[in-house]
Amino acid sequence: xxxxNILLSWYQTHKRDLPWRxxxxxxxxxxxxxxxxxxxxxxxxAYYLRFIERFPSIELLAESKLDEVLKLWEGLGYxxxxxxxxxxxxxxxxxxxxxxxNTYSSLLKLNGVGDYTASAIASFAFNESVPVIDGNVYRVIxxxxxxxxxxxxxxxxxxxxxxxxxxxxxxxxxxxxxAIMEFGALQCVPKNPNCDVCPLNGSCYSAIKQTVEEFPVKxxxxxxxxxxxxxxxVSCEETFVLHQRKANDIWNNLYQFPLIEVSKKExxxxxxxxxxxxxxxxxxxxxxxxxxxxxxLSHQHIFARFIRIELNEIPGLKANEVSVSRAKMKExxxxxxxxxYLEQNDI
Length: 347
Ligand code: SF4
Prior knowledge:
Layout (H helix, E strand, L loop, with lengths): L2 H12 L11 H11 L4 H14 L3 H6 L2 H8 L6 H16 L8 H4 L7 H12 L8 H11 L8 H14 L5 H14 L18 H5 L15 E12 L2 E6 L10 E2 L2 E4 L5 H11 L5 E6 L3 E4 L3 E12 L9 E5 L10 H9 L3
Parallel strand pairs: 1-7
Antiparallel strand pairs: 1-2, 1-4, 2-3, 2-8, 5-7, 6-7
The structure holds iron/sulfur cluster.
């Protein structure tokens, strides 16, 4: 039996029953694919169900306020995904009269849709014969064929795309692509796959040569930046200050406590001094300082501390700041680091 037949037969027995697998509606498939990028299925499932319940059609998503979309996305991270979806929904409604583009090349024109998402929608919803290559597929193909090219290099990506196109069942693109992704997620897993029970073990390069841990080849390690955040949880009675992030940076459009970011750790005394001078604050009460919290993002490690300050009056608000009661704070879209602080601290 050839590669694709084996995968399809394995898929029939092992596939998980997930709501986006029982539909060919491109809108639902798109939502699921965007949510599942960088997110595990179990976590993504709850978000998907909430999202589809609130925005059952692309028109409703296009009409909504971005803040509401970001609020639903809260905790998922990579917020640019939500902003791009919101923009692309408006693009589909206004430029395409609500008709979802139905080919790989037309899908690529949508805001925030790249090769992976376009391939997934084109094949899952319209059965177009284009291979979908995510991390799971890189692993399966890299190991199966013993591809020695780095998956992060341009040449490597081309080689993988060629290999994936040759291996796929072009008449059955929707099922085949889902099968190979699921196979990578459940059978050919990153660490210690059980090759003894794998239906591909008779023809798999890595199983035969016992080189499973060597594939897929990844040479370019992602460079991690360290950032140091000091959040000021400033209150006057029950009113707090939130700042909406606007720079082209992480958490764009989300709200946080006013922040001082520095390039290396600083003493709390220096940071508080900087904050009170910037804001012309004469009298304040320092209510507490949190321990350092490490927040890990894909390319950044953030080391944050929260400094709790009570004032006699809320200082003059700066650009993009709002004063908000404690009770109303949860209505704003907040990055996970802020919601976690609120959950763990009685402020
Ligand atoms: S034999 Fe092992 S390495 Fe090869 S495809 Fe199966 S699980 Fe992956």
